[in-house]
Amino acid sequence: MINLIRRHLRSSLLHSLYSKENISLYSTLSLPSRSHIPMDMQEATSNPAMEGDQRNPNFEEEIQPYKIHVSSKYLSLTQKKLELTRLPHEVALPKEREWELGAPKNEIEPLIDFWLENYSWRTQEAHLNNSLPQYRIAFRLPPPSTSPPLRIHFVHIRSRHRHAIPLLLIPSSPLTNLSLIPLFAPLSDPASPTSTQPFHLVVPSIPGLGFSDPLQTPEAEGTVLEYTAMILNSIMLRLKYDFYLASATGSGRESAVGVDYHLPRLIGERFPGSCLGVSLLEPEVQSPRVGEGMSWVKFRVARFLKAAVFGYVKEDWRAMNLLRNKSKDTTKKDQVNEESPLLSGKKNKSLETVGVLGLREPTTLSYALCDSPVGLLAVFCSGLRKISPNHSLSPTEIIDVTSLAWLPGIEAGARFWAAAAKEIQAMSKKPPGPRTRVAITVFRVDGSDPDRYTCPAWATRKHNVVFTQRAVGLPGLVSWERVDVVVAGVRGLAREIGNLDPRLRSRRLEDVLMSDDEYSASEDDESGHDIQLNVGRPDTVANFNTNHGAA
Fold first, then answer.
1. Quick one: CATH architecture of 32-66+132-370+409-500+532-543?
2. Three-state DSSP state, 437
């Protein structure tokens, strides 16, 4: 009780010392308050479909702990389907060509046996529930929607370090929040917290993926990314993170229809009053073209001089020279574009890619993948192979990823990508949004794949780039294989935003008002807020409106 009073007094003092726009994001951080989000924390969206009534989200219930649970009946059905699987006949190919037509039988068959004989979902389920603080909140969509509340599943990890910064981690499509575990400890509890920035982590599952409900309202058709950005921002505000950073966890150029770039950037563009910066991995940006003003002039001058000016560095020219000097074998180029049409750099390929992936008719694809765990396993194995040919994921990890898609069903995710593809194409025809602060991370600077190298300076046409890093090698399975790169990008963003924006520096005053012992004691008092206690209680239901009041 004493600690609770201290926190209330500290909150009041901070609010009296700071103007509304500089309220400390930690002043009421852990209190399970039922108070409404301050009016000045709401952001106006530039989406015409979401303008009009300026009402705010009305959060009246506490966020409740949540434990994942899959029906035993469904697990039994999964086992039966695995046992009854009919594998296709194969064409005899030499070993170096065995992946040429897709996942080979000698890859899939041992995984089926492992799934049947050695894998236990209940063991993985218990581990996830015991090791991760999981929650669920439901948003009540406004009239005329008659859909049930939209329930969003998220992980919320409070760092034990006083100077931690709130960070929204956005899962790479089509992964769920439970696939990002390798990132959690390095970000929330670094080995040297005094010299390395720690973070409070909020990791939601995108609507329709994992254990989050899908967007089913007609209002969301054509604006699934806009709606998702609004939902994720609302979760951060509901947790009393008035100011926060966001980060992608997958390559924007390699993700399905570019979702890993467009969703994080939309959060930064639509809600600049709360999301102070976004860390992007390989954004979908192209080299400047004639008619694009000073961006093109700077590019041509820097390229002619091969100089480190205008945001370009020598490594950029080296990577681009490798591309220019590369053999222009037409067959090779066609093969690259066929394998990954999204990465060819041609914007008019986006919907064609949806057709190639079977997402032009997502429901048709779902009939097959919702009925066959082995079919879905083969799709994941093929995807893993293309992204990281020499990956070291264990059979358990491969089946974990597959199960997190198979058990909830893939149909909502497929529809999400199909709708996102159309939305992204429509957005590409509109003027750029606000220039938000971003960190840019690119791979392949060593020429490992010059066809797909993205120069960080190209992003300055759309974004205010405050930090860049260039990594050697391919992105691969980012959240497993390039954890250090993701973490470095987020910390670089936090450092630069902290130098530019006083709202991230407001923590220093609170450090004076609260000693280390007091902070540790308050964390102990609120341990129930971070672990599962009473899972029998209903999910939170909050009234969710599509319109935010102007800041």
1. 3-Layer(aba) Sandwich (3.40)
2. strand
DSSP state of 142: P
Rg (CA), the chain: 24
* Residues of each domain in the chain carrying CATH 3.40.50.1820: 32-66+132-370+409-500+532-543
The reply to whether the predicted model has a pTM over 0.85 is: no
Which one, of 43, 167, 438, 456, lies nearest residue 277 by Cα?
Answer: 438
Backbone angles phi, psi at 241, to 5 degrees: -90, 85
Q: What is the pLDDT along the chain (551 residues), one digit of tens a residue?
A: 555 445 544 444 334 333 333 322 222 222 223 232 222 323 333 333 333 233 344 443 468 899 999 999 999 999 999 999 999 988 888 888 888 888 999 999 999 999 999 999 999 999 999 999 999 998 876 666 677 788 999 999 999 998 999 999 999 988 999 999 999 999 999 988 888 899 999 999 999 999 999 987 665 678 899 989 999 999 999 999 999 999 999 998 888 788 999 999 999 999 999 999 999 999 988 776 766 667 666 766 766 666 676 677 777 777 777 666 554 444 444 444 444 433 333 443 334 434 445 567 888 888 889 999 999 999 999 999 988 888 989 999 999 999 999 999 989 988 898 889 889 989 888 887 788 999 999 998 777 676 778 888 888 888 999 999 999 888 989 999 999 999 999 999 999 999 999 888 655 444 434 444 444 444 443 333 332 322 333 333 444 333 333 33
**Cα gap 199→160, rounded to integer Å:** 9
